[in-house]
Structure formats: C-alpha cells, structure tokens
Amino acid sequence: MQLDELYREVILDHNKHPRNFGRLDPHDAEAKGHNPLCGDRLTVTVLREGDRVTDIRFEGNGCAISMASASMMTEAIKGRDRAAIETLFQQMHALLTGTGSASADLGKLASLAGVREFPARVKCATLCWHTLNAALARSDAVPASVSTE
Ligand code: ZN
Questions:
Q1: CB–CB of 45/29 below 8 Å?
Q2: In this structure, which CATH number among 3.90.1150.210, 3.90.1010.10, 3.40.50.1820, 3.30.70.240 belongs to the domain 3-141?
Q3: Mean of all residue pLDDT scores within the chain
Q4: How far does residue 136's CA lie from ligand 1's centre (Å)?
Q5: Which of 82, 120, 132, 147 has an alpha carbon 20 to 30 Å from 65's alpha carbon atom?
Q6: 138 versus 27: which is more confidently predicted?
C-alpha cells in the first residue's frame, strides 16, 4: 500500500490541525459515530437555523482519514442548507465509491478521492457524514414530535 499516495498533503494538514474541532454548547443537534473496522470515533454537534447549519464542531479520535474528512466536511457544510449538504454528501459518496468524479463543488474534499483505492478506508472517510446526517435527522424529530393539534 502506497501510503504516501493516500495521505496527501491536504489530508495531513487537516489531521494535524483539524478545523472546527471541539464541541458546541449549547447545540441543536448531536450524534456520535463509530467505525468499528478502524476504531474511529466522532461526536458532531450542530447549531441550526431552520434548514441551515450555522455552526458545526466535531471531536473524537481516529485515523488521519477520518479526522481529515471530518475537518474538511465541517468547513464545507457550514452555512449551507439541508439540500446543499445532501448534494455534497451524494457527490462525496460517489467520489469515494468510484462511481463519480471530483466535482468543483467539493473543493478540498476532493483530496480524499485517493481513498477509493483502499475500500477498507472508505468508511473512515464517510463516518463524519453519516454522523452529521444522524444528528440532523435527530434534531428534525424534535419539532415533529410536538403537535399543535
Ligand atoms: Zn479510520
């Protein structure tokens, strides 16, 4: 395995200096993610205004791919609404599973494209996205459970 191909400069930088690392308190949504194949663990906290994620932080520990992916994800989705986040997630998923090519929208996230050569690591890169989706779905459920009828 050519690790130097996988661990590119951007990934190393984000792993060493993760952006938006920590915890938002208070927050509107929180979820924990675990990738047992590699041992990566993440907690994502989110502030939202209606449909828009206005702030996001993550904390946890894991391999360079999982940490760098989470760091880049937080930068990419901050300020975006749910539809835009879903579009980015679909593009990321296609990129990582080899069915899509890097689109301009992905920006730095495209640096994770090399992960597709290492199928066991794809879950490391997508863990943060699944965790974010879980947090948003959970916070959606809160207002839905309050009925005015
Ligand atoms: Zn990992």
A1: yes
A2: 3.90.1010.10
A3: 88
A4: 23
A5: 82
A6: 27
Alpha carbon separation from 108 to 23, 48, 84, 102 (Å, rounded): 23, 23, 16, 10
Q: For 3-62, write each residue's pLDDT tens digit.
A: 445 457 889 999 999 999 999 999 999 999 999 999 999 999 999 999 999 999 999 999
Q: Among the residues of 17-148, which ranges form H helices?
A: 64-77, 82-97, 119-144
pLDDT digits (tens, 9 = 90+) for 81-112: 999 999 999 999 999 988 877 777 788 888 88
- The residues placing their C-beta within 5 Å of ligand 1, an ion, are 38, 40, 62-63, 66, 124
CA of 123 to the centre of ligand 1 (A): 7
Residues near 56 by beta carbon (within 8 Å), at least 6 away in sequence: 20, 24, 44, 45, 46, 47, 74, 77, 78, 132
Q: Which two tokens stand for residue 135?
A: 């947090």
How close is the Cα of 128 to the center of ligand 1, in Å? 11
Instruction: Find the 146 Cα to ligand 1 centroid distance in Å.
Output: 38
